[in-house]
Amino acid sequence: MYRNEKFNRWRRHPWHGLHTQMDGAEEGVVQVYVEMLPTDVVKYELDKASGFLMVDRPQRTTSSPPALYGFIPRTYCAEEVAKRCPGVEEADGDPLDICVYSERHINRSDIVLNARVVGGIQMIDDGEADDKIIAVLDGDNIWGDVQDISDLPQIKIERLQHYFSTYKLVPGKELNIKVDHVYGREEAMQVIAAAEKDYWNHFQDLHEQAKE
After folding, report:
1. What are the protein's UniProt keywords (predicted)?
2. 96 φ, ψ to 5°?
3. Residue 171 belongs to domain spanning
4. Can you give the pTM of this predicted structure?
5. What is the pLDDT at residue 212?
6. CB contact at 8 A, 37 and 109
7. Is 30 exposed, middle or buried, given 0-12, 13-18 or 19+ CB atoms closer than 10 A?
8. Which end of the chain is more exposed for a tag (fewer CB within 10 A), N or C?
9. Residue 165: inside a domain
């Protein structure tokens, strides 16, 4: 039985009802809720209140994510995440984003998968920390053995940097986004730990109320 919990006939909230890791998962393998696919030109995002996937906005340009794009459950980017980003006082106040590479095309979102963390990109968006963890699909036949970001082709990282530096682009409006710092697996795990700490600092009461 999943974490010794009774079967829940209601759908679990993807952010609060799932766990960061499945029971028995190897170190560095996390659960991911997928919001967007590489084919999407509409920005989909989880509605935090209801737990349903919603349309955030149609992309103004033809920009689409070069990997599966979602978040790690029970993480939150707040004070602890911001501390890891020099010169930044705040984080974006969302679950920790993650991009997952898969050799086989996954053709639907609103799903959960296991991914092996290999690194990340320290993104600063208008003065807020907004890290993007980079991972590979656990057990993938091509990328499954990748352990660190240095094992990925450099072009994979460059495409992610380009996407996140341009996906909010509006003609005539200057963007204030930095994606210069790319880090490996060890630092990525520290960012995840900080985001988990932020989550429990902000949402522990929610889980205590659910037990009552």
Report:
1. Hydrolase, Magnesium, Metal-binding
2. -70, 125
3. 12-211
4. 0.93
5. 62
6. yes
7. buried
8. C
9. yes
Strands (E), the chain: 29-36, 42-46, 53-58, 68-71, 90-91, 97-101, 111-125, 128-129, 132-137, 177-184
Question: What CATH number is associated with residue 174?
Answer: 3.90.80.10
Cβ burial, residue 120 (10 Å; 0-12/13-18/19+): buried
Amino acid at residue number 160: L
Number of domains in the chain: 1
Residue 37 falls inside a structural domain: yes
Segment 124-181, tens digit of pLDDT: 999 999 999 999 999 999 999 999 999 999 999 999 999 999 888 777 778 899 999 9
CA proximity to 103, closest of 70, 132, 136 = 136
pLDDT one-digit tens code per residue, 59-111: 887 788 999 999 999 999 999 999 999 989 999 999 999 999 999 999 999 99
Please tell me the distance from the alpha carbon of residue 20 to that of residue 72, in angstroms, as a whole number.
6
Quickly tell me which residue has 């072009």 as its tokens. 155
Nearest partner of 38 among 109, 115, 96, judged by Cα: 109
